[in-house]
Design goal:
Number of helices of chain A: 8
Number of helices of chain B: 11
Distance between the termini of chain A: 102 Å
Strand order of the largest sheet of chain A: 1-2
Largest sheet of chain B: 5 strands, mixed
CATH superfamily of the largest domain in chain B: Alpha-helical ferredoxin
Distance between the termini of chain B: 64 Å
Radius of gyration of chain A: 24 Å
Number of domains of chain A: 1
CATH class of the largest domain in chain B: Mainly Alpha
Structural class of chain B: alpha+beta
Oligomer: heterodimer
CATH topology of the largest domain in chain B: Fumarate Reductase Iron-sulfur Protein, Chain B, domain 2
Shape of chain B: flat
Radius of gyration of chain B: 25 Å
Helix content of chain B: 25-40%
Order of helices and strands of chain A: HEEHHHEEEHHHHE
Number of strands of chain A: 6
Shape of chain A: globular
Chain lengths: ~270, ~325
């Protein structure tokens, strides 16, 4: 009779290392900075969105992006380029049509997902640092399976970027007609950065050409895909830059509307 | 030369501990050199896998100061002189001894992955692809299978119970490579990625990309595109509706879903194998040598512009398939 060596049943053990992580670098710094940055921004944006004033500079037609498109019955008539039809209520933001989609776009964004899974949810806080949770099912079930809806938020974000661009065009205004000032420079930088962030989206990269199997049969889409791919490598940077430009643009217009400073005018 | 402090994990499946060592370090050395010096001078039975010492074989994967890295690609000059450097085996896999782990999880997952499916209307030798069509897949071919990404991925590293359902980043780049392959005939790779490989478990925290020694953009170029391709098939109502109307889903079912073994079974009709796999083939003939037994490297004497092929210069491409002991299962 021959005997065969058998392996012990069950999972074989891993190396018994007591320390949860042996990393000696400052791996906690990035998640901490992310928490501080995102919390500060969300706090500022929430405060501004529900403030419902200081969002419009009538002389130069500056409208802050947090109130665009201004569709509430409480909007200044001159600021409401697309009509006023939603009820005026302190709990309903004046831009209630666009803000939920912008929030969704950023919440389901592949970069922000990494940022908040790591920093807020600690899953994992950093590479080779243990997950903060005992169970993990990823994005396989409710509610996180809805992260797959990112491309619809992207479509909405494209429409909203068009509206922001239109706002920037309308803001080339002065009481005497055409005008151009520091506020326009800020608004245009913000719009350009928003377009760069929106175009660098991973879903955009997929839709524009990434989904193809044969690039050689679609030379135009291949070209577009390679441009989006270049932008896409900077998606994280653009995500933070646009948070900054949005807040700064809003803050500058709030200051103008409140009379804290006056706009530096180049024309008009 | 300096003498530096190290903590190296020694033990096996029954247990182990971090031992302290003082080892000499010279200018230009890497962590693997230190391991070798440790073996040569203090611990002759320290177990460690290594092979090429050039970051191309993927053998010397270990965790250095807690980060999954290749021992041969981690320069000692990146550490402070007074720093104690910890070296441990990969944590996500069962340990065999010291720094050697059992990585068979990855081979098991690779075996479950359906192989490249050759197009039915082309014979071997007739495959033609354009460079821009294979560029994306070529990035993933850089993989050296060091399994650092598999080890660092928290889905299995911190949750061993996910191992049956989750294949890991290394296999996701394989899935993306084949799904983007211009000649791959399978249409169900998205379903396989989602259902058998567990693509949905990935929460794109990008640690696989961070540790990849070949700098493959695993998350941006493979996992996210695969997730988007899955969205096309499963979560995009417009696409699902379009497929129903155009009946694309009925066209697609040419290759069976589910994992298959790599080489498909060879059909043998009436006891006659299509190819006699035992036949003796004429081996490639070696190149001409001169009187001293060397290849003529002098361009005045050689009859070709480039160096002679070590496999023989009598091969012309495309190779005649009849001269190979190979059978194309669909021809």
């Amino acid at each position: 009779m021959t005997t065969t060596a058998t392996r012990p049943a069950g999972a074989k053990p891993r190396a018994a290392i007591e320390a949860k992580t042996l990393r000696t670098d400052r791996w906690w710094l990035a998640p901490v900075l992310t928490v501080i940055g995102l919390t500060a921004w969300v706090a500022y944006a929430t405060f501004r969105v529900f403030m419902q004033k200081l969002y419009w500079v009538d002389a130069y037609h500056y409208l802050t992006p947090f109130y665009s498109p201004c569709v509430s019955k409480g909007c200044y008539p001159a600021a409401a380029e697309f009509g006023r039809f939603i009820p005026d209520n302190p709990l309903i933001p004046f831009a209630a049509l666009s803000l939920p989609f912008l929030l969704l776009f950023r919440l389901t964004c592949y970069y922000y997902r990494k940022a908040y899974y790591r920093s807020f949810w600690l899953s994992p806080p950093a590479c080779a640092v243990p997950d903060g949770h005992a169970k993990y099912s990823g994005e396989t079930r409710f509610p996180l399976i809805f992260q797959n809806a990112h491309r619809y938020a992207f479509y909405a974000a494209v429409l909203i970027s068009l509206i922001n661009t239109w706002d920037a065009v309308l803001a080339m205004h002065s009481p005497s007609g055409f005008g151009f000032g520091l506020g326009n420079v800020i608004l245009w930088i913000n719009v350009i950065m928003l377009w760069a962030y929106t175009a660098s989206c991973h879903s955009c990269r997929h839709i524009i050409g990434g989904r193809l199997k044969h690039f050689s049969k679609h030379p135009v889409r291949y070209k577009l895909w390679s441009w989006v791919s270049v932008l896409n490598t900077r998606h994280m940077g653009l995500a933070w830059i646009t948070l900054a430009t949005l807040a700064l643009t809003d803050f500058y217009i709030m200051g103008l509307a409140a009379g804290w400073w006056s706009d530096l005018r180049f024309i008009g | 030369m300096t003498v530096r402090q190290f903590k190296v994990w020694r033990g096996d499946a029954a247990g182990g501990q971090l031992n302290d060592y003082k080892v000499e370090v010279n200018e230009g050395e890497v962590v693997l050199d230190v391991i070798h010096r440790l073996q040569a001078t203090q611990e002759p039975d320290l177990a460690c896998r290594w092979n090429c010492k050039a970051g191309k074989c993927g053998s010397c994967s270990m965790e250095i100061n807690g980060m999954p890295r290749l021992g041969c690609m981690t320069r000692m000059s990146t550490f402070e002189e007074d720093e104690t450097i910890s070296i441990t085996p990969l944590r996500a896999f069962p340990v065999i001894r010291d720094l050697v782990t059992d990585v068979s999880f990855n081979y098991q997952k690779a075996q479950e992955m359906p192989a490249f499916a050759p197009p039915a209307d082309l014979a071997p030798g007739e495959y033609r692809m354009q460079q821009i069509d294979v560029e994306r897949s070529q990035e993933f071919r850089k993989c050296i299978e060091c399994f650092l990404c598999q080890n660092t991925c928290h889905v299995v590293r911190d949750h061993d119970e996910n191992k049956p359902a989750f294949s890991g980043p290394r296999l996701f780049i394989r899935a993306a490579e084949l799904d983007m392959h211009p000649l791959d005939a399978r249409h169900d790779r998205k379903e396989i990625a989602q259902q058998s490989q567990g693509l949905g478990y990935c929460n794109i925290t990008k640690c696989c990309t961070e540790v990849c020694p070949e700098h493959i953009k695993i998350t941006d170029n493979a996992i996210i595109p695969m997730k988007e391709r899955v969205v096309d098939r499963r979560y995009d109502p417009l696409v699902v509706f379009g497929r129903k109307i155009l009946r694309r889903d009925q066209l697609a079912a040419t290759v069976p879903a589910g994992p298959t073994v790599h080489a498909g079974p060879v059909t043998v009709t009436d006891g006659q194998a299509p190819v006699d796999f035992g036949r003796e083939l004429t081996p490639p003939q070696p190149t001409d040598v001169n009187a001293s037994g060397h290849v003529n490297l002098n361009e005045m004497l050689s009859d070709r512009a480039a160096a002679a092929s070590p496999f023989g210069d009598d091969i012309t491409f495309p190779i005649n398939p009849n001269s190979l002991n190979y059978y194309h299962p669909e021809r």
